[in-house]
Amino acid sequence: MKKLILSLLAVASIVACNKVGNNEFKIEGKANGLSDGRNVYLKMQDTLTNRLVDVDTVKIENGKFKFEGKVLEPSLRFITIDSTENQIPLVLEEGNITVEVNKDTIAKSIVGGTYSNDQIVAFSKASEKVQKKIENFKQANREKAQQAQVAKDTATMNVLNKGYQALQDEFVNLSYKHAEDNPKSYISLFFIQQYFGDPKFDATRATKMYENLDPTLKKTREGKSIKKSLDEVKTAENKVGSNPTAVEIGTAAPDFSAPSPEGKNISLKSSLGKLTLIDFWASWCGPCRKENPNVVALYKDFHAKGLNIIGVSLDEKADKWKEAIAKDQLTWTHISNLKGWEDPIARMYHVDGIPATFLLDENGVVIARDLRGSELRAKVASILK
Question: Which residues, other chains included, contact 145 with Cβ-Cβ below 8 Å and sequence gap of 6+?
Fold first, then answer.
């Protein structure tokens, strides 16, 4: 999802003056510098394989190309050209869409002419300012961070992490504000979908975002997906109570149970220690596997002092799950329903992105969320020292 959004933001916009009829689109492209006769493909993402498949093909003539057709609802499309790399993403919607191909860097091609494509540019300009602040912060503090890591100065590392996280939150919040302020913008759908994976997810806010959307967007594939996710969240909340923040800091973690690799049913309640880490992960999750050595070291240093860990896997294949546990030497408690993203525990905890962690005190109350690496170690050490 994030990769898709960033690719959308990589394009700029220009204004088109030509008009088309109702429920019609026209894509007029300029391909200066590219030879005539090359094929230009209009593609869409297959919902089953996630691969790009051809929708239409035209040729470059006199340095130009054109696609025309009917459109009943906005959708994401991509343009590719023979003998060039990368795709040009655009929102296919009613109107005259213009494309100026950058033959040297396809990702810098210019797209515009319709409302949603122009909204991409408006958001991109705002986000670039925050991205620059993030880069400046990283450059200004790189040496300090390296020194803190060598010296194991957790206090300094925590301060730097908080400063960096604040800028990351500012960047992410831009997308949510865009969705709230621009209910007719097609990219608002992607930002709402992104919100479901935020540790600070608020079902009430997400519902308002969705309800505020233009009816046309609600009928799209993405709009229907958002509605389905909201319904699932509501069902999960009904199981653990009406509180939409049932797994937030300061609240009791809902109990759950699932089979272990040996087939034994294990519950959270039976796994609690003086301090308990619920670790949502999967064998296929690269960031999870990269974080595992840190968790192994943490468990080795603090298990005897009262730290327990229960790993909740979002795997679907038992052999891959068990293989990862053995290979990464994860010696704590593990459970899984082997249902992937449909895992009922993940739904109950509103987990839409992994790795995800919940740190509980001896009474099963959530005291921290989504801490990793040095930040997690510092928190555990401060409690079990």
Answer: 157, 160
The parent domain of residue 210 ranges over 120-240
Shared domain check, 269 and 170: no
pLDDT of residue 201: 77
Determine, yes or no, domain membership for 228. yes
Rg (CA), the chain: 24
Of 61, 80, 113, the last residue of a domain is: 113
Phi, psi of 261 (to 5 degrees): -60, -25
Q: Mean pLDDT over residues 235-239, rounded? A: 59
Tell me the CATH number at 344. 3.40.30.10
The pLDDT tens digits for 100-136 are 998 888 878 888 999 999 998 788 888 889 999 999 9
Nearest one of 278, 280, 365 to 314, comparing CA atoms: 280
Strands (E), 46-109: 52-59, 64-70, 75-81, 88-92, 95-100
Q: Are residues 55 and 129 in the same domain?
A: no
| Structure tokens that stand for 298 in this block | 């943490």
- The pTM of this model reads 0.57
Q: What angle do CA 140, 146, 149 make, to 5 degrees?
A: 135
Is residue 132 in a domain?
yes
Weakest-pLDDT range from 79-93, 131-145, 244-258: 244-258
**CATH number for 9:** 2.60.40.10
Query: What gap in Å lies between CA 113 and CA 13, rounded to an integer?
Result: 7
Supply the DSSP string of 10-26, one letter for each residue.
Answer: T-B---------TTEEE
